[in-house]
């Protein structure tokens, strides 16, 4: 299992950025639906990593990390959609998307190794 790890720290900092992006989108762009979905999925990444940190078994750990990974993929979807509908600029997208991509790669790697050790 992992303690407050690098992936947890990155997910937490990413969630803070998304909360601020949500505030910006809802106040300045009066966009509430897509940005709310982004807010939910992105904050769920760190929440599931936190739950994985308290896992009572390898299977529990793997299940929570799997949810975190899927929420990260969903977050990337919402970011792409916000960019392609011009709610965020390509510059804003390029500022935040690589963080989501890095977190998803880290989570996938953790999932692979946790499932390999289970066999």
Brief rundown of the structure:
The chain contains four helices and no strands. It has 119 residues and is mainly alpha-helical.
Walkthrough of the structure:
The model has no long low-confidence stretch (mean pLDDT 93). By secondary structure, the chain is mainly alpha-helical. α1 runs antiparallel to α4 (90-118) and α2 (33-53) runs antiparallel to α3. Helices cover 84% and strands 0% of the residues. The chain is built from four helices and no strands.
Please identify the structural class as seen in this structure. mainly alpha
Q: Report the portion of residues in β strands.
A: under 5%
Q: Roughly what is the average pLDDT, rounded to an integer? A: 93
Tally of separate helices = 4
Number of strands: 0
C-alpha Rg (nearest Å):
15 Å
**So what's the overall shape?**
elongated
First-to-last CA distance:
16 Å
* Poorly predicted runs: none
- The sequence of SSEs as H and E is HHHH
Largest sheet: none
């Amino acid at each position: 299992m992992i303690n407050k790890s690098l992936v947890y720290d990155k997910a937490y900092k990413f969630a803070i950025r998304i909360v601020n992006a949500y505030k910006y989108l809802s106040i300045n762009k009066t966009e509430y639906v897509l940005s709310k979905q982004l807010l939910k999925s992105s904050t769920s990444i760190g929440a599931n990593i936190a739950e994985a940190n308290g896992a009572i078994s390898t299977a529990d750990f793997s299940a929570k990390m799997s949810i975190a990974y899927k929420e990260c993929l969903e977050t990337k979807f919402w970011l792409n959609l916000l960019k392609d509908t011009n709610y965020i600029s390509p510059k804003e997208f390029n500022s935040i998307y690589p963080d989501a991509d890095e977190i998803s790669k880290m989570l996938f790697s953790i999932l692979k190794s946790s499932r390999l050790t289970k066999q």
